[in-house]
Structures are given as structure tokens and as C-alpha cells.
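Hello,

Our lab assistant flagged a job as stuck in the queue for most of the afternoon. It eventually completed. Since we weren't sure the result was trustworthy after the delay, we are filing this so someone can double-check. Below is the sequence as submitted and the structure that was eventually returned. Let us know if re-running is recommended.
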Amino acid sequence: MMSNPHTLLPRFFGSYRILMDDGSGCYLVVMNNVFNTSLEVNKIFDLKGSTVGREASDEEKTNGKLFKDLDFSTNIYLGKTTKAKLEEQLNRDCEFLEKSEIMDYSFYWYSS
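-- returned structure --
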């Protein structure tokens, strides 16, 4: 993170396992809030760059406001400078993921 301070990747703070008295348990990952905003979030898009299985169910759309690649039909106008910065950062993040042999990656976009 020190060499890539503007990364769009989440920052992980810890990974924990919680055990119950009955022996059952669950795993928990703590990371920074990627949607830290005072604006109301109306939709969240989980974009993976794929079309296979990438349409949100009616339940996901209604309950969680979660949408996927095939649900995304909005044009985004960023301006040349912002677009170039975003593309550069995405390329740096992808290079890091490739070097780390991490395959699964989502780009989250939210609208308010």
C-alpha cells in the first residue's frame, strides 16, 4: 500500500474466527468501509467484467440494492483527466493482483 497509496483495493485489517460454545463458528474479515459517504446509497454495482451469471436477482435488487454487470446500463462521464487517473489506478491494481496471483476482483460502483 505504501507504493500504491491511491489503490482502489480494500484495506484488510484482520481475519478472525469466532467459536461458539457449541463448537460452531464463523469467519470474519474486517476491512475499511469502501462506501464511506454522507450521501444515501441507492444502488451498488458489483462489477467483475464478466457476463456469466452477472445479473442480480429480484431479491438482490430489492433487499440489498445490489446490481451486477448486466444490470449496469449507465454512461459515466468523468472528464479526460479523471478518466486517465482511474484507468492508471485500475491498471496498477490489476498488476498487483496478477503479481499476487489473486484472481477474483470486483469493482464496486455506487449511485446516490
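-- support follow-up --
The delay was a queue issue, not a problem with the job. The result is valid. The two ends are 28 Å apart (CA to CA). The longest strand covers residues 12-19.
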